[in-house]
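Note to self: the last two entries modelled the partners one at a time, which told us nothing about the interface. This time every component goes in together.
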Amino acid sequence: MIYGHGGNIHELAGRLGCNLEDIIDMSSNINPYGPPPGLLDHLKDRLSSIAALPQTDGADIVNAFSRQYEIDPSRVLAGNGTTQLIYTIPRALESQNVLICGPTYSDYADACIMNKVKFDYFMADESDKFIPDFEKFKKEIPGHDTVFICNPNNPTGTLTDRDTIINICQSFPNTVFVIDESYLPFVSNDGAKTVAGADVEIENLIVLNSMSKIFRIPGLRIGFAIVSKSLVPRMKQYSLPWSVNSLAQAAVLYLMKNKAMVLQFITSSNKSIDENKAAFLKKMASLKGIRFFDSATVFILAKIENDELMAEGVCTQLADEKILIRNCTNFSGLGGRFIRISLKLPEINDMLSDRLSNIFK
Ligand SMILES: Cc1ncc(COP(=O)(O)O)c(C=O)c1O
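The predicted structure of the combined assembly is written out below.
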C-alpha cells in the first residue's frame, strides 16, 4: 500500500520547509556507495529513449538478467520494482491462506489485504534475536498455500542459510514459497548465494530480486522474479505491459553487460559497509538504553530500552534535526520501541552516533 514505508523525505521536507537534499535519509535501505560507476552518464545519454515505448515485456532485460544468473529466461519476469511482483503474487497464485515469517516488511500482508486473501504471521521471538525457529515455523505451514520469507529480513537484519530455505521448500511441495532476496546482495560471504540458483530444481518457489537497493536506483523501479516452471503461466497472466520503463531497461542492460565492474562495485561497497557498521556499533556499544541487533545487511534494528523514550519521540527528535530514521512501530510484531537505521557514509554515521549519544547519554 502507499503508506507505511521508510524514506518519506518529501513529507519531512514539507514539514520543515527545507529542500529534499537537506535531509539525511537513514530510513531508506539503499547502498550508500551507489549508483555504480558510469550508470548515471549512461542514462543521461539515453534520455531521448523516453520518446518511444519500451519493450512491452522487457524481453532484452529478462534475457540479460537470465544470462547473468544462469537461469532459463522463460522463468524470469521483470516488474516495476519487486513491489509490483509482491502485489501480483497472491492474485496470480489464487492464494487462500498465506503465512508470513515476521516481523517483516509489511507489503506481503498488504498484498494479501489488497487481494482479499487471509494471512497469518509466524513471529520470530525477540528473545531469539529475531532468528526464526524454523522447526516451530514448519509446524505452522500446513494449511497455508503460500509462504513469504524475506531473506535477509527487513527490518531485523537476520539471514537464513540457503540450505534451511531449500529444505523447507522441499518439505512442503504443495505450498508456494516466496523468498524475497532484495537485500541478499549486501551479504558479503557465501551466504549471498540465491536459492534460485541453477543447481536446485524446486517446483514451488518464487524468488524476488530487487535492483533498487544494492545499485541505489529505487527511483527507476526495477525488480525481477525467478519463478518455478509450473508457476510461470499463472504469474504471466498478470504481467502488465511496459511495466519497466525505457531508462530502467537501459540501466539493467548496462549493469548486466558490465559484469566485472558490477562485481567489483558490490564487493567494495560491502567491504566498506561492513567496516562502517563495525565502527558505528563500536561507538554505540557504551550507550545505555538502546540495544542493537546483529545484522547481515546494510540496516540495523535497535530497541529503545529507556523508560522515558519511545521510537516515536526519538524519530521526531532526529527528524527535527533533518535526520530521518525508520520508526518501526507499525511493523507487526515489533511495537513502539524499535527503530531501524540504514547506514550511510562514515561521516553521516558519525553524525547520527553523536546525536544518539546525546539522546541516550
Ligand atoms: C524487503 C523488501 N522487499 C521489497 C521491497 C520493494 O523494493 P522495490 O520495489 O524497489 O524492488 C522493499 C522496499 O523497501 C523491501 O524492503
